[in-house]
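Async update (no meeting this week)

Hi team, since we skipped the sync, here's where things stand on the single-chain job. The sequence we agreed to prioritize is pasted below, unchanged from the tracker. I ran it this morning and attached the output directly underneath so nobody has to dig for it. Comments welcome in thread, and please keep replies under the output.
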Amino acid sequence: MGGSRLAGLGFAEECPFYFQCRAGAQGALSLNTKQKLHDRLLGELRGQQHTLLYWAQLADLTAQGEPAPWQFNGQAKERLAKATSQLRSTVNITRNSLNTTREGLPTTDADTGPDEGKLHEILRGRCVSAPRPPYHRTADPVVLVLGTKPGTAGSATTIRCRLRSELPPPQDAPKWITALPEDLLPALTEFTQLDTTGESKATVPPFYGAAAWKQPWQPLFVEWELDYTPVPAHDADGTPTTHWEFTGNDYRWKKTGAHTGARTTLKGRQVLGPHLSRTLHANIQHYLSTHPALPPKTVILLKSLSKVVTDLDPLSQTLAGLTDQLAGRLPLAGTPLTTTGEALDRLPSHNLTPGPLPDIGETWPPSRFQDVRAGHLVFTALTVIDVFGRTLDVIDDTTRDWTPLLLAPDMRPDKTPVASGYDRTIEARPRLVQPARLAIELSGAANDDLDYERDCHNPGANPLCGWILPNYLDGSLLCFDPDGAPLIQLRPAANNTIAALPLPGFDHDDITPVTALRSRHIKALIKAASSANGAFQALNTAIHRLLPDIDTGHPDGTHQHTALTGRPLALIRAAASIQTNGPLWTDPAWQQVHTDVKNLLDPPKEPPAPAPARPWTVRLGETKRLHDGLIGFYTYTDPAAFPSLTPTSPTSTLHLAPGAKPVMVTLLMDPHAVVHAASGILPVHELRLPDHLTRTPLSRLRMSHRVGPLPATERDKRLVLPTPPATTGTWTFAHTHTTNHDWTYTPLIPADTTTRLPDGPLALHTGYLHCTTPQETQT
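Output:
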């Protein structure tokens, strides 16, 4: 990090930043604390502004006598106006707090460079901004219409321009035309004598005329109408339903749970464009120009493909607004009221739609709000409109039942569709309607409340919990603390027990005296694996099964003694969550507004119960990706209740709810690989360990093989033993005979076939073949 400058620093709502620095801990702490506060205030402000804009529009409707729910008449009208004014004051307070926080954060300008005036002196030139992943917005379906023949001209005949001398002799103009310029009389005469068929004996031949004009067809808009049948992914209490099956990457409908009684109609209009064929043609031409050495046959095929693409006439466009309608949101049009505009630093991206009005004396109508887009879509109408207002009904009441649709594989139901007909039902697999992102973030090994990106100044925020080095020679596992210092060797023993033996350099009989907070997770793992509950067997089996298939491509992997051992594995503490862009979206129906206004003006004695969490299945790790380095994970909050390992597999999942508290996990992974997290509802998330976290601990890890009793003799004060090959160090014999584990390291000399007299008697030795580096102090 040292020497780096601030890069890409900013305060975009979709992509907040945290600051990473290797120097100036207090300065980095101040920056990241302010950034965290900025992110929280920004989310609160956007949520408050959406509600304010909505309430202000409702208050304006009631003030002008426009249609509004009868429950908002009389005193309720005044209460709505009062609540709007109160919320406006809250928005102004939140906005002022946000602006104050923003003033204390540096910004970056592309022309002038980083604004380092707001940085602590020691941070200047040493601090870099770390952008967070953007929030993902669910894409709406795309409609592709073929056969509309855009840009078709009515006539290909050209009109010749001539001089006045080439025009027919002028005739008198009709009496009802007055004040006609003299120069226009020949043109008017020619107009009356035009031969549009080529068969008459008019004075002007067809060469000087024009064919019958036909209005060109130029598609401009597409109007669509869909019936949406929801298939809920959760029950009312938030329990996941069995209507959708998580396959590890996406969801598959199981032909149950279609709520035909809750069917709703969605409508919209979008501008059509021929950009699809143009983009394909441009990409082919670009490929040809950037690959001049292509075989002639390939060039001919690509040029043929380019011609086919050019001759196509597809018109495509996204059905924008479809997902927003399910959430009760629509893009804003117009400007807010003056009093409301003063409380908005910019317009929110959406306005809320409350749905139908209740009849006088009747209860609230059912809400159409959907926090998840999951169900089936059926086109009921699709009309193409050209620039002159003419229409072409692609799907209407007479063709809706038999018009086939060409659907993408992930939009076609696997089984019998809800609606009758051939390929008419579009499967909308579960997707969140609110922008969100899947996050697996590094947390402090010493304290789960510490975030590595935010609190990188704090040693307790280091996510490294420990290291495990498998030994293929004897089936043992070598355990090290987060800094790479030796701890315990776990190895199978008699009677299906697990022996926990101290490694060379560890000064205790067992792991109990280790009290460092950062080592509490590796300590709990050692205790659980050394018990008789099969935890060691599950851990060792997962490592031997998965580690050989991980290919990181990192050169450090060749430095290990892979013939006898596997690669080092890092134990990492992380927080898994689904983060939303601001507060969770709520139902914008009239009834909800009525309840919110009442709770604001007359707060209940007990706060209303929060909406139930709606968890989603998230798969950690991907065995089919060679560069995925996850061996397995543990899910717990208290290390004292250490669970068994969940090895990486298609079913290695956990459950996360949008906007809920993160789920803490401890990952066992290859430090040079990445960990993939897939939810089916959001893009796949990748977690990668920074190199500067692992470089020093990896350099301290030492391989040790327990041997003995082994007969050996000494020569030149060295122990004569067969030694394994080593490229990064030398081998010594480590042993101890004291209770305080005062380790002795005896140099080794490789045994060979030469006959020599020993320097001393043959003796039995028990200890470790210990690999060290020449720089390590030996005693």
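Quick observations from my side:
Residues 1-132+332-366 form one domain.
The longest strand covers residues 372-386.
Reply here if anything looks off.
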